[in-house]
Amino acid sequence: MTNDSAGPNPIDANGLCLLSLDGGGVRGLSTLYILQRIMLQLSLERDDGIVLKPCDVFDLIGGTSTGGLIAIMLGRLEMGIDECILAYTQLMSSVFGEKLNNIPVDWSGNIRGRYDSQRLKAAIEHVIEKAGAAPGDLMDDGTQRRCRTFVCTTAKDTLQVTRLRSYPAPNKDTLPATICEAALATSAATGCFESVTIGHRQFVDGAFGANNPVEEVEEEAADIWCTTSRDLKPLVKCFLSVGTGCHHRTPIDDNIFKFSKTLVTLAIKPESTQRRFMARWSNELKEKRIFRFDVDQGLQDVHMTEYEKRSLIESVTHDYLHNATQKGRIRDCILNLAGKEGKTNVEFDLIMQEYEARVLRMHVLKNLHSVKNPFLLNKAPCWAVPFERNPRFVDREELLGKLKRRLFAQGQSQRIGIFGLGGVGKTQIVLELAYRTKEMYSDCAVMWLPAVDVEALQQAYLEVARQLRIDHFDPDKEDVKGVVQRHLSQPHSGRWLLIIDNADDIDMWTDGGPNSISIGLRSFLPKSDQGVIIFTTRSTRVAQYLASANTIEIPEMDETKALELLTNSLMNKNLLQDTDSTRKLLERLTYLPLAIVQAASFVNENNTDIASYVRLLDGQGQEAIDLLSEEFEDEGRYKSIRNPIATTWLTSFMQIRQKEPLAADCLAFMACINAKDIPVCLLPVPEGVERTKAIGILSSYSFIHTSQAGSRVEMHRLVHLATRNWLRSANSLQQWQARSLIIVNEHFPFPDVVKRYEWRAAIPHALQVLQSTPTEPSTGERAHLTHIVASCHALDGRYKDAEELFLQSAECSEKMFGPDDWRTLRNRSSLAYAYQTMGHLQKSIQMFEEVLEAHQRIGGLDNPAGMDAMAKLASAYRLSGNLPRAEELGNRVVKYYLNVLGSESRCTLEAIFNMTLIYYAQGRLSDAEKLAQQSLFIMRKSLDPDNPLTISAITCLADIYMQRGRLREAEELYTEGLERGRRINGPAHPITIRDLHQLAMSAKLQGRHSEALALMTECCQLKEQVLGTDHFQTVQSFVLIESWTTTKSLTSRMRSRFSSMERSAVMLTRRQQYPRVEVLGGLYKARRQPKDDSLIREIKKAISDDHVSKHMLSD
């Protein structure tokens, strides 16, 4: 249907095509044969060489029972008809080939399935996998497919029909069912198969609620395409319902068993549903938009499980299709479907309303013409739009639909604010809206005012006044803005749309602002029930100020729309065949429309390819800026505004700098660090109102987005580049980079376990400022920040990274402060500890000794810094095998901290823990156990349960238990320590790996060989990843695995696997660490157990004294 004046009827090319499929067991083959004939003839009718699938033609496919199975195959799995017939035949043969039970009830009277539900499941899974999907894939997996698909199932508890969809349904609760679950739920016929559980709900065959789902399809389509009006009929081009053959007319029998069967037949009989539907759609039936195909004779005696009668089904269906009446109806159906050009978008209801409004207006104008009323005919509405329609425009249906619904709608605001990042496409969207408004409302005046600057706005007002034929005013005496306002506010002005583009400067709209014209422009806005004003702005604050809550945010395009825009903009479409480079380009440009058009312009003008542009974009920072600063022509943008994406935000930057200097400082700072995952604690603005305000300003321009409950901000990638360009052009980039190092140094979170979440996020930004600032001349801020980041790496077990940064920090501080300064000594002590963790024990010991000598020279050792270095030196001596020296130093450290800080201080507990390790290495297991138990008891009381020191103490006590043969107690502690370590430190932390190693050893000693081998293998993989293949701990683990899997001697195993140096290192380490122990059955046993130890007595006394002091204070 067409109307010469109003244009073609949209329903002819884009009207809804709906497909409804009945249930019927094996008789579903009849449905497929009917569809096969229709799709074959449709492909021939189109004559374009393409074999069409139902998913190519229909917008929505709904089915129930085995019709639901077919719907999933055709819609969700996007099968062709021939492929579906083959899969369906094999599925029916497999499922109904053998009965599981001949009697449909068990001894207790409960209904049970006569066929194997597991066989049905396996057959469905086979079909899904053969189609290229996985049975566990969700029906709605978030992918936009060629058509929407749903199936009906019946809730067992309520007998209510439930729809399982392959698409999101607004305002509907949709179960997250997998493809397999949905197929089972719709086809689980009671008496044939068991019910199906999805989540916590049970479902049975959808045929109980809707064996003919035509009314379900009707309601679902209304939910999608006409939610408000619920009037589906004007939107439907073709509604095809296919049955599985008519049923017998069943009399009601007095026999109870036959009566129950009759009730089931009455419940699922589809003919009554079809009669009700056809009565409602009788007009559409006459217009040949509704079709029902259902074999009327020959299938009544075919039961739903009689798959062996498929030959009969095919023959009867063939005869039905070749009946003269049906051939004519099929021809009508095909001619209808052949006109379908594209899928129907969700705003089709609005499109049809626009068309009907155009038809009505054309009819009115025609009547006016017939009575020869030249006054009304010749008064064309005002059209003052400065741009031609954009031929490259990509329809963003959802956004345009929102705008069109708010135009001239009762109860809607007369002002609409559209906001979004510069270059996101706001102007192009309202430009398209202007042209569509002209088409939809031919009597509507459409006016465009650019708020780029005061002069441009003044000239636009004069042009609007001319177009409105307002010639009775003196521009020198009257303000044209007031004249236009009064004119549009009068009822006789009729319907109008006023677009005010680029309303970014709030001062232009407020009274007394520096950029306003005497009084704010807001005072000149017209008011009329027949008029609508649309503002476009980059600022959320301006949008809310001008339009209150009636605002719409314009996001960046999705990948599909972005690709469409690139396709429309490129001259050489063959370049898009490089799909990988195309995807990378769109990702780099963040799907921003202006950046995409600029990239296409560069490719067109320079005759290059997409991959080359991506390489340029991925080059050095300045190269990317230069590329994004290339000028290009764009007919849809103002001549006074620079087009390149790198300069498009300069006006906004300057506005922020002028009005909100703190927000501008934050913007400049963020341009000097990474653009992603920025902790707000790093920002150079005090916490509280000022920080909140600064973040709000930048968010209102869409330059940043907040995440994770406001603790993180993220800067737009292209804005990040453009801001750096702005700073560079103002000769302030290097200044801000130097300032950023100071800011990060001042605001970096303290590196402890409690704040691990914060400092982990801050590390990439600290590394960025360290990398971007010169290393010479050295500064105290640089040395301090480097040391902090290195400490964080050490806490995270990244010892290689920590070692490198500690070395830089030590060198930097020595240049700045000299070799004996406390900062230099702290950094050298940290570097020595890093050497120790990496296994470089001699270097570590030498550096610690030098640090201790320096402390001795400048102030003695009896101070926290000296004792910290001494404690770490004791640990290094322990690891190197010099246990007497380790014990001497460890004793001194423990006594110092007990006297100065008490027994519950963290420093004291660390010193006691180190002493425990020394006793353990000496083979004094009894003393080590006592110390471990005492210290762990205090740690559990005074420290956080997940403190790393507590975790280390737990595993230390477990080590002692294992060496003493108490394997079950040891395993419990290892398991506790490993669980806490994984949660706090992560699975790849060296401490966590060490606990995993010990748990494997515990399992091995208890005879669980397979479990032990699996744990040790995982441990080896992690050690290689974290410590490296050559680390002595990694070597030891490889030795263990080989010893557990072969029967060779240790010496021969090591000789075949490792070099002589590595073998010697392993054996020497074992002898040095355990000189006073002997090995019995894999367990260490001390040759001599001292009866008493003076240090243990001193520790016990200190703990007791602290306990008494606390009680006295509490009393």
Characterization of the model:
The protein is of the alpha/beta class. The chain is built from 48 helices and 21 strands. Among the domains are: 10-338, Cytosolic phospholipase A2 catalytic domain (3-Layer(aba) Sandwich), CATH 3.40.1090.10; 381-553, P-loop containing nucleotide triphosphate hydrolases (Rossmann fold, 3-Layer(aba) Sandwich), CATH 3.40.50; 559-628; 941-1090, Alpha Horseshoe (Serine Threonine Protein Phosphatase 5, Tetratricopeptide repeat). Helix content is 56%, strand content 8%. The strands form five sheets. Strands 3, 4, 5, 6, 7, 8, 9 and 10 form an eight-stranded mixed sheet that branches. It has a six-stranded parallel sheet with strand order 11-13-14-15-12-16, with helices on both faces. It has a three-stranded antiparallel sheet with strand order 17-19-18. The longest helix has 23 residues, at 348-370. The relative contact order is 0.04.
The CATH homologous superfamily name of one domain equals Cytosolic phospholipase A2 catalytic domain
Mean pLDDT over the residues: 81
What would CATH call the class of one domain?
Answer: Alpha Beta
Instruction: Please report which band the strand proportion falls in: under 5%, 5-15%, 15-25%, 25-35%, 35-45% or over 45%.
Output: 5-15%
Task: Tell me the overall shape.
Answer: flat
Tally of DSSP β-strands: 21
- The rounded distance between the terminal residues' Cα atoms is 96 Å
Major sheet size, sense and barrel closure: 8 strands, mixed
The CATH topology assignment of one domain is Cytosolic phospholipase A2 catalytic domain
What is the rounded Rg?
40 Å
Structural class label: alpha/beta
Q: Tally the helices.
A: 48
Work out the helicity level.
55-70%
CATH architecture of one domain: 3-Layer(aba) Sandwich
